[in-house]
Amino acid sequence: MDDLQQRATSPPPTQTPFEPLTERDLAYIVAQAVADRRNELGWSQRELGEKVGMKQSHISRLESANKLPNLGTLLRIANAMGANLVVKLEKPEQQ
Fold first, then answer.
1. Which pTM does this prediction carry?
2. What is the DSSP string of 11-71?
3. Longest Cα separation, the chain
4. Phi and psi at residue 72, to the nearest 5°
5. Which of 16, 19, 38, 43 could form a disulfide with 47 if both were Cys (CB 3.0 to 4.6 A apart)?
């Protein structure tokens, strides 16, 4: 294969292959978002749990990324914190 053919079939040098998120990655992103918003509000895990109807230990597991909450639970948490829950699917950005 000559150089021109190789360049035509190879991705541009700045383009990286798409790497899908794992469930663990998503659990970490959710955990960080919940913890950040809770800290902005100045709430303890216990206070958030009381507002959502969950035990502090459940909030702790969620914020430790040990457990990915279902959407209903995440919606209750977002509502309790006065936050919008946004879920969307996007094409990966070109680098």
1. 0.75
2. PPTT-----PPPHHHHHHHHHHHHHHHHHHHT--HHHHHHHHT--HHHHHHHHTTSSPPPH
3. 67
4. -60, -45
5. 43
